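Whiteboard transcription, Tuesday session. T.W. wrote the structure tokens on the left side:
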């Protein structure tokens, strides 16, 4: 195995402000993958494979939440995941949010968990020097803007859902609201 096959994980503690006494209270430890490859398959839910996973545990090592990410070129995976969850949980609550661009947030609550799916379109610009290569002179760059969809899947035990959705402000947790 090459050293490039390993991915960095950032580990940091999360503290929240306790409104009753204005002191910081430990919420949990967050594990975020800083590097990943869209070719990796770290987890599968329904028929969707995810290439990045972040999670949070509390001081007793209890599971507080997980967010998994995959990148897709069409909305087919988004629709499949929503249908898969809806078969088990019923129709989702659907919202359109705006944070560095609009995205869709679908949420379900059952007796035990908050489940959420975020569909966020990414526009990636690639520039080429086709004009300069063809004509040997300075010309404006041609701009190609392929798009992809970042598909996030969240699962959080209900007893932690409110604290996490109101207090997580980093990484892929930014897009989760309740």
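and on the right, the sequence the group agreed on:
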């Amino acid at each position: 195995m090459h050293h490039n096959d390993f991915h960095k994980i950032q580990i940091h503690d999360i503290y929240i402000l306790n409104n009753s006494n204005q002191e910081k209270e430990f919420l949990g430890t967050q594990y975020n993958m800083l590097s990943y490859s869209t070719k990796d398959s770290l987890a599968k839910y329904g028929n969707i494979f995810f290439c990045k996973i972040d999670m949070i545990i509390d001081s007793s090592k209890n599971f507080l939440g997980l967010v998994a990410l995959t990148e897709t070129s069409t909305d087919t995976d988004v629709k499949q995941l929503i249908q898969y969850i809806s078969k088990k949980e019923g129709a989702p609550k659907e919202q359109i949010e705006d944070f560095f661009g609009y995205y869709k947030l679908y949420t379900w609550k059952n007796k035990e968990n908050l489940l959420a799916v975020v569909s966020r379109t990414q526009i990636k610009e690639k520039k080429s020097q086709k004009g300069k290569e063809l004509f040997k002179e300075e010309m404006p760059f041609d701009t190609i803007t392929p798009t992809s969809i970042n598909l996030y899947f969240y699962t959080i035990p209900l007893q932690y859902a409110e604290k996490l959705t109101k207090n997580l402000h980093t990484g892929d947790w930014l897009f989760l609201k309740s």
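Someone added at the bottom: The CA atoms of residues 28 and 60 lie 9 Å apart.
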